[in-house]
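User: Hi! I'm working on a homework problem where we have to compare a predicted structure to a textbook description. Could you give me the structure for the chain below?
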Amino acid sequence: MRIYRYILEPYRGRRSRHTCPACHKPHEFTRYVDTETGHPLAPEAGKCNRENKCGYHLPPVEYFRNHPETNQDKTDWRSSEAYKTQYTPPAERPIDYIPKEYLERSRQSLGKNNFIRFLKKLFGEAKAIQLAELYQLGTSKHWRNAGGLAVVFWQIDRHGNIRQAKVMAYNPDTGRRLKAPGSAEVWRNGKYRPETGKPGAYFAGKALLKNRDANLQQCLFGEHLLPLYPDAPVALVESEKTAVIMAGIQPSVIWLATGGSHGARWTASEVYQALEGRRVILFPDLDKTDEWAEKGKILGAVCHQVTVSRLLEKKAPAVDRREGYDIADYFIKNLLCTEANKPKEASPMDVPAQAVKAENTSLPSTCEKGGQKNAEADAPTYSEDPVLPPGWRYEALSNGEKVMVDADGLPAVWNYRPQNDREALAVFVATNPNVIRLIEAFDLCFEEFFV
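Assistant: Happy to help. Predicted structure tokens:
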């Protein structure tokens, strides 16, 4: 006979099922309740019924680990006669892993992958494929939109085991996740049908294993990179998209993603143990800074050092705060040039073709004073200032370069489009003071982050 102090609340109708703190779906969350008092343990302690689409689960043992001050009765319960004589801890089930053949199969259609198509717009063909290889990005036919398919963010742990397959649909032009009903088609019963709900995220692990009872435990996205660079600092962000893009901006750092606010339950010891001994920087989304600062204290138990970047919280305008911007959004805004945001009058920062020698351009050292090394010779020149959109203006840097900023005071778009699939990132950093300014603003040298 097993006796548990805290159990999942028995079903007593819709009122006994609550809104999930992770996916925010109403009437899908089962809370843990105290068998002695009948009261819920905590609003966030429980399990989402949507195992494939959400997978959130915060058991009592993990809740008390994160909030030891609330476990007043722990000693009394464990020293009680009932606990000593009748309690049987549940047997630990082995973790189920996804066979590698599924990952390899998903990487055969990268040309149709909408997320990789977006990476090509940012960085060019070569850099996009390099990032797709680094993070082992895959393609899934689960969703179809804009002539392309969804991306698979494979969760591979530091031992090379495949833990989960997270499928998401993206707009290949803007890089935004598809969230509106009808924005994609979903593959069901052998053919595509209009997606009536929000595309969201689909966790395909149990479907691939054909086992609804499989014991799949998520890990940090990008965790497989940790053994490859044992001395590199680690940057932790929320979304997989942000991790991949920032790896293209600052490749000397290992960019990992939690996969959401709760995501892989990254404050659970079995997840954050992967960061043992590492120097870690947390880059929370704009609306999560204080929450991540608290969670960072938990990581401090195993990490060599944990730092929380508060730059966005201090500097971002209100409109970005409402949108929940993250660090990658500012680089995307700067790098991506679309017809929608291009100034109507003229291209304010048009780069002469002869000023760009991408095949001989290497990334400048951003850790030197000024953030730029020998880039003055290749910097573009301007004969006159074109007419700017309302609220936009130029700002002068210390080296004499002029930087165009938008109405919010943030770096504006760079309007040069690389040709012939050249290394776009090298072009942008070598010739665009806006990128250098952002790298400096976010302290992406990282040598200055740790003391």
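For your comparison, note the following. Residues 289-299 form the longest helix (11 residues). The mean pLDDT is 76. Good luck with the assignment!
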